[in-house]
Amino acid sequence: MVAMGNMNWCSQSGAPRGMAGRPSPDQAAEKDAKPLLRKVLVVDDEPDLADFAAALLDAHGLDVVVAHSGHEAMQRLQDDGEIDAVFSDVMMPGMTGVQLADAVREMYPRVKIVLASGYALPELLAGRERPYLFAAKPYRIDTILKLLHS
């Protein structure tokens, strides 16, 4: 029986045949890693629902900012460059969630967008030029987390 420990080579020439130039498992995982999600902007015109979603996301280790309208959300994005994702209701007065998503994608292309509604069917969003991730209300927080991290 041969025990093998961690082997580190100082140069590619010291690597066994066929191993030179291959990334280590850690390097491969780092390359495939998705951007870290740290801060989410929750947008809902119903304050209780917005606060509840924010509390659930916060309980899962995310920093959360809340806005109660699409226009307020755009202001928060302008003021806070650390927001990584927007989780928004679709049916809101003034600026709808879809209009907000279009504006966010145009102005902040690196920001992930997840929409939710108890009214809008996913099929209505699917035919759009710009598809968005969608969750039907009532949703499970693990569903939202999967969408945000996808």
The string of secondary-structure elements, in order, is HEHEHEHEHEH
Query: Could you name the CATH class?
Result: Alpha Beta
CATH superfamily: Response regulator
**Could you please say which CATH topology applies here?**
Rossmann fold
Structure summary:
With 150 residues, this protein is α/β, with parallel strands linked by helices.
Q: Could you please describe the fold and organization of this structure?
A:
- With 150 residues, this protein is α/β, with parallel strands linked by helices.
- The protein has a single domain (36-149), classed as Rossmann fold (3-Layer(aba) Sandwich), CATH 3.40.50.2300.
- Helices cover 37% and strands 17% of the residues.
- It is built from 6 helices and 5 strands.
- The protein has helices at 25-32, 47-59, 70-79, 97-107, 122-126, 141-149; strands spanning 39-43, 63-67, 85-89, 112-117, 133-136.
- A 5-stranded parallel beta sheet has the order 2-1-3-4-5, sandwiched between helices.
- Helix 5 (122-126) links the parallel strand 4 and strand 5 (133-136).
- The model is unreliable at 1-33 (pLDDT under 50).
